């Protein structure tokens, strides 16, 4: 296993099939993961146990300074970006100043590259918190993960810390009124003696019913592409992903596949 952690606030830009020429923002600590999930497929490795000392998060002003400096430099070089993406070493909405940072980012983006989109990749666990919900409503690409409609599969794949309330996640996804993208990782594997495969017929049936209920403006499906926290995982072939995409398209939803 050779997973990867970001060592700075701003990273990239990276060429992303989903988000174009994308500049990344890591709100979590440098070189250390902070997440309320512990996904078996996480590219940042396993989530460390809570430490006695508080993890050092980047301060709001540090994030805005770093972003301004980078975008000003890109502007001078005439090197435009397509998107600013909040991802990095864990769950970005955990940052206590996440809403303020989103406001700053919108302002900075409008100054330097008003055409660029702002994207947030979130695991959906905190969308019921009003200030998080409101902040996500302001971004162009509110990308919310939900890997299965069956809670036991989520438990196996995502290893959430604390409660995992799928009904609450569904309720709040509906409240976004289609202003979000649903992101689902497909894979097979075994973890601690239990097997899972969210491409099984029962899984896909329940997941499509969930899509019909929450009505995302788009669905992004993908499978593992790099090293993951846990080794005993199986990538899903592109043909299977395309077949799943076809079933979603049949229901009238747009789908993007990354194999
Ligand atoms: S939610 Fe994202 S960052 Fe957190 S453990 Fe899962 S894949 Fe990693």
Report on the structure:
- The structure is a single chain.
- The longest helix is centred in the first third of the chain and has 17 residues, at 60-76.
- The protein has an eight-stranded mixed sheet with strand order 1-2-3-4-5-6-9-11. Strands 8-7-10 form a three-stranded antiparallel sheet, with helices on one face.
- The two termini are 20 Å apart.
- By secondary structure, the protein is an alpha/beta fold.
- Helices cover 33% and strands 22% of the residues.
- It has a single domain (10-258), classed as TIM Barrel (Alpha-Beta Barrel).
- The chain is globular and about 50 Å long.
- The chain has seven helices and eleven strands.
- Helix 1 (60-76) runs parallel beside helix 2 and helix 2 (98-112) packs parallel to helix 3 (130-138).
- The structure holds iron/sulfur cluster (SF4).
- Iron/sulfur cluster (SF4) binds at residues 35, 37-39, 42, 44, 47, 90-91, 123, 158.
Query: Biggest sheet: strands side by side, in what order?
Result: 1-2-3-4-5-6-9-11
**How is the main sheet built?**
8 strands, mixed
What's the end-to-end separation, in Å? 20 Å
Structural class: alpha/beta
CATH class: Alpha Beta
Ligands and ions found? iron/sulfur cluster
Give a quick set of tags describing it.
259 residues; alpha/beta; TIM Barrel; 8-stranded mixed sheet; 7 helices; 11 strands; 33% helix; globular
